[in-house]
Amino acid sequence: MVAALPRYAPHLPTAAATPAPVRTFAAAPGGAAGGNIVEAEEESFDRHVLKAKEPVVIVDFYADWCAPCRMLTPQLTKAAAEADVKLVKVNADNCPVVTEQFGVRSEPRRALVCQRF
User: pTM above 0.85?
Assistant: First the structure.
């Protein structure tokens, strides 16, 4: 007879114990990732998003511990490079004021900021 394992086994390693790096962005096929992809902090958020020169900015609220955030990062990076829009990554754990202003309650969360049409 095999005993059933408990739903939560604290002695087993989890994916959250060794999170994949989020701040490194691989170049998307057919385009360079880097020029339009930035990491914003609370001090630089206004400059990168609200006062941006680009007409459209995608804001990606993420957390280092969030597995879906890590899974979506390559696709979001590729889409931003293909569409030639600015992607601003905001770590929700490090930027509570900005996160509250945008009403973020859970990650991953995206926001589209349009300066002009």
Answer: no
